[in-house]
Design a protein that fits this description.
The protein is of the alpha+beta class. The chain has 12 helices and 14 strands. The strands form 4 sheets. A 5-stranded antiparallel beta sheet has the order 2-1-9-8-7, sandwiched between helices. A 5-stranded mixed beta sheet has the order 12-13-11-10-14, with helices on one face.
């Protein structure tokens, strides 16, 4: 009887230690930290433990993508370049695209899988393709973080799986989100895609806020046991664009709920109009808004030396504006994926949208016509209007068929200092 009683106590003790017969204990999340920042000015509207160093989890991939975009822009890699999947990359744990050792994958597919699905294997392939190794790429990440002013950040890997010495802060992640938006506007849309194709597979976003919060534009989710549930969110309403960062959430649901509260707080505090503050390098590609007055005739003998010079000649100096384009007031030039894959006979469409005045759209058409860029030979340019967020906006649509793919057409337009974005990546 004593033996039986001892056995019962022993079994009960083992059951208690193993959790048998009792509900599972919830994972203890990392300490909460949060911040709300104005995208345009960088003003902080709320911060709690924003400089505390914590595990960023897959928010790390924002820096991986920053370096990938930078490498593409510098010509170090190409979006359609195929790179080999190493054994090390293929063995990364989920979430993953399940790439195979020796498989060759396009850079654009790796970018999509990293940004949308948060695939760890895709992030590692990018890191090895750009840096040569995980360690070398991690050093590049940390150096770039220092360059961008991220004082409480150090990286050891490209995906954010827990590793000693790998950390960031809520403030640093908000700063990185701003840099992604301003430094690489042509790639920014990747963070807002709900689904896409990558390496022949349909991938879907891990960011539920895209479907549940008005104005949500996306950014990045992250989770590990050490980090808790993390989320960087960007949302836009009217002229306002706000960034929120939540670190150490206890669940996806609570993380998303807190992100919504922070975004709401940001929109309540954000002024309707604010000057953009960009403490880093200004973009070389500038877009010009011109005269409120009726469109004047072009001056005789005008030489097409760039959109800015043409606009200045078209409009009286007192009315011309050369301020940098704001993402809400003036969208960049977008190249839509062509229906044909034949590079020698490509149907394409460009759209310049967001003008508040029809005369601005007319002035742009005149400027493009005078500049005569080869990319627009034989193109038709029209103005369409639509209501967006309570205001009527005018957009210039350019349609044509030219002997070059959209990427090359964009390159032609950049030569005349006009921002052009190829959306087909």
């Amino acid at each position: 009887m004593a033996w039986y009683g001892h056995r019962v106590v022993t079994v009960a003790l083992l059951a208690l230690l193993m959790g048998v017969g009792s509900p599972p204990t919830p994972v203890q999340a990392a300490p909460y930290a949060g911040i709300v920042m104005d995208m345009r000015s960088g003003a902080v509207y709320y911060a709690r433990s924003a400089d505390r160093r914590q595990h960023p989890a897959s928010l790390t991939k924002m820096m991986t993508l920053y370096l990938a975009f930078d490498a593409v822009e510098k010509g170090q890699i190409g979006l359609d370049q195929r790179v080999r999947v190493s054994r090390h990359a293929a063995r990364q744990p989920a979430s993953k695209l399940y790439l195979r050792k020796g498989q060759r994958v396009r850079i654009r597919d790796l970018i999509r899988a990293t940004a949308i699905k948060s695939a760890n294997d895709a992030a590692m392939v990018l890191a090895e393709a750009i840096g040569g190794s995980q360690a070398a790429f991690a050093r590049m990440m940390t150096n770039k973080a220092r360059e961008l002013g991220m004082k409480n950040t150090a990286f050891k890997n490209p995906h954010g799986l827990t590793q000693r010495g790998h950390y960031s802060s809520a403030r640093d992640m908000a700063m990185l989100a701003r840099h992604l938006y301003f430094d690489f506007p042509k790639y920014y849309n990747i963070f807002g895609r709900k689904s896409d194709m990558a390496a022949g597979k349909r991938i879907r976003t891990t960011n539920r806020l895209l479907a549940t919060y008005r104005g949500a534009e996306g950014m990045k989710t992250g989770y590990t046991r050490a980090a808790g549930y993390n989320l960087v969110s960007v949302a836009a309403r009217g002229q306002e664009r706000v960034i929120s960062v939540v670190l150490g959430g206890r669940s996806t649901r609570t993380r998303n709920a807190q992100s919504k509260k922070l975004l709401d707080l940001g929109f309540r505090k954000a002024p309707t109009r604010v000057a953009e503050q960009r403490p880093w390098k200004q973009s070389r590609n500038r877009t010009v808004l011109v005269s409120k007055a009726p469109l004047p005739r072009a001056k005789p003998g005008l030489r097409a030396t760039g959109i800015e010079a043409i606009a200045a000649a078209l409009a009286p100096a007192a009315h011309a504006s050369t301020r940098p384009a704001s993402a809400s007031a003036l969208a960049p030039l977008y190249a839509v994926r062509p229906p044909s894959r034949d590079e020698h006979d490509v149907a394409w469409q460009l759209a310049l949208g967001g003008f508040e005045r029809e005369t601005d759209a007319l002035a742009l058409i005149a400027a493009l016509t005078l500049a005569e860029p080869k990319a627009l030979n034989g193109a038709d340019m029209t103005i369409t209007s639509a209501k967006a967020k309570g205001a009527r906006l005018y957009r210039v649509e350019v349609k044509g068929r030219v002997p070059m793919p959209p990427a090359r057409a964009c390159a032609q337009l950049r030569k005349i200092e006009h921002r052009c974005i190829n959306m087909s990546f």
